[in-house]
Amino acid sequence: KLYNTLTKQKEEFVPLHEGKVSMYVCGPTVYNFIHIGNARPMIVFDTVRRYMEYKGYEVNYVSNFTDVDDKIIKKAMEEGRTAGEVSQQYIEECKKDMHDMNVKPATTHPLATQEIQGMLDMISTLIEKGYAYAAADGTVYYRTRKFKDYGKLSHKNIDDLEAGHRSIKVTGDLKEDPLDFVLWKPKKDGEPYWESPWCQGRPGWHIECSVMSKKYLGDEIDIHAGGEDLIFPHHENEIAQSEAANGVPFAKYWLHNAFLNIDNKKMSKSLGNFFTVREIGEKYDLQVLRFFMLSAHYRSPLNFSADLMEAAKSGLERIVTAAENLQRLSGSTVGELSEAEKDLLNQSHAYQEKFEAAMDDDFNTADAVSAVFEYVKFCNTNVSGENSKAYIDALYAKLKKLCDVLGIIVEKEAEI
Ligand code: AMP
Ligand code: ZN
After folding, report:
1. Cα of 235 to ligand 2 centre, how many Å?
2. Whose C-alpha lies nearest to ligand 1, atom 19?
3. Which ligand does the CA of 234 lie closest to?
4. pLDDT value for 7
5. Ligand nearest to the CA of 24
6. Residue of minimum CA distance from atom 2 in ligand 1
7. What was the pLDDT predicted at 415?
8. In angstroms, what is the span from residue 72 Cα to ligand 1's centroid?
9. Structure confidence by residue, pLDDT tens digits, 291-348
10. What is the whole-number distance in angstroms between the Cα of residue 324 and the centre of ligand 2?
11. CA torsion sign, 111 to 113 to 115 to 120?
């Protein structure tokens, strides 16, 4: 079961195509090193993917890099570089951080700048269907009121939105309605741009995800995910674009992680109260950061603190030490399972079942981690040099399997 933001309920996961999961996770805008808030969706949805794979699904996991954006252009201008140079650099840095947090590379990591043709096509379709229009200056807007389901994801009423917008309406606006949002906008001097039927310009942010999701996963997908700040307007607008253009429901399940806070305040670049993943990596193995993130349920706010990181570090050590102990014993024992060992192995299945029950309940990693701790205790209590190799190896294999789902590495690298 997973909690679907669309229906505000936990629902049983039924894939569109048997045995397969198509999943799109909104990725970062690449103008700086990622901060540990950005790392939260990467880690939790990588864990969702790993659990789906553990359950036997073939997962097609797509996560984009937003590599054209005001913030990237601003940074490039400040540094006398091109926007492409800035985004390329931070894509590489982000991939390094992902690797160090043991986040698997996506099946595809599309870049917005490589998908412009698809965006032009979708915008043209929306114009043809009456869902979009070009204003006099070449800006293309989405005609929000035309999409009858607008607000269904964020559970907002369109008239309330309109009231809020009217008070901040800017004079000289070329929109038909204050709720309309940008699909394509004209370039400004010195900015990167592409040719289009409407003006030389660049895409709005929302259209890129609708287009990349369609291209790599199809018109209808199983899961769309991201941080909860993306519910409105980003994901609401993605639904409006995709469903109007494609004529079918977009994503079946919408998953959103809660925020990572610091001193109980939202961690964000604009508030300046953030740590980059790289900074944390100077002090801790990034496995510790991963383990810390998984110690909470993904829909609960999580407060970052030195104490919790220390607790995560010692918890992780307990698991890794148990794994090393089993590996060491495996090297020094021989033989097949005794009856007593068979019995113990049967008992040990209860921990795996507990782990699965936690993960089946909307990916409750906090409880899944508790099940791993209980299993570690079981292993520590029930192994010695007297046991057979078959027994030790079976216990180790189970520990490794569960830790693999969490993305926690327990296997010692082969010594060179
Ligand atoms: P951005 O680069 O700002 O578009 O963010 C990339 C992803 O990180 C999005 O899914 C955001 O929702 C998520 N995100 C940003 N800040 C935080 C935070 N403090 N806690 C959790 N997720 C965050
Ligand atoms: Zn997106």
Report:
1. 7
2. 37
3. 2
4. 98
5. 2
6. 28
7. 57
8. 16
9. 999 999 999 999 999 999 999 999 999 999 999 999 999 999 899 999 999 999 999 9
10. 41
11. positive
Confidence of residue 164 (pLDDT cuts 50, 70, 90): low
Is residue 283's pLDDT more than 80? yes
pLDDT of 77 strictly over 80 = yes
Does 60 score more than 60 pLDDT?
yes
- Residue 102, token pair as written in the block: 């043991």
Ligand 1 centroid – CA 41 distance (Å)? 7
- What is the whole-number distance in angstroms between the Cα of residue 45 and the centre of ligand 2? 14
Nearest CA to ligand 1 atom 1: 28
Distance 132 CA to ligand 2 centre (A): 19
Q: Ligand 1 pocket: which residues have CB below 6 Å?
A: 26, 28-29, 37-38, 40-41, 226-227, 229-230, 257, 259-260, 266-267
Relative to the alpha carbon of 300, which ligand is closest?
A: 1
Q: Whose CA is nearest to atom 9 of ligand 1?
A: 227
Residue 238 clears pLDDT 80, i.e. is over it: yes
For residue 41, name the pLDDT band (cuts at 50, 70, 90). Answer: very high
Q: What is the CA 373 to chain-centroid distance, rounded? A: 26
| pTM attached to this predicted model | 0.96
pLDDT of 272 = 86
Phi, psi of 377 (to 5 degrees): -65, -45
pLDDT value for 269:
79
Residue 25 CA: nearest ligand 1 atom is: 10
CA atoms within 13 A of residue 401's CA, in its CB half-sphere: 16
Atom 6 of ligand 1: nearest residue by CA position: 28
- 173: pLDDT confidence band, cut at 50, 70 and 90? confident
Ligand nearest to the CA of 224: 2
CA 70 – CA 180 distance, rounded (Å)? 20
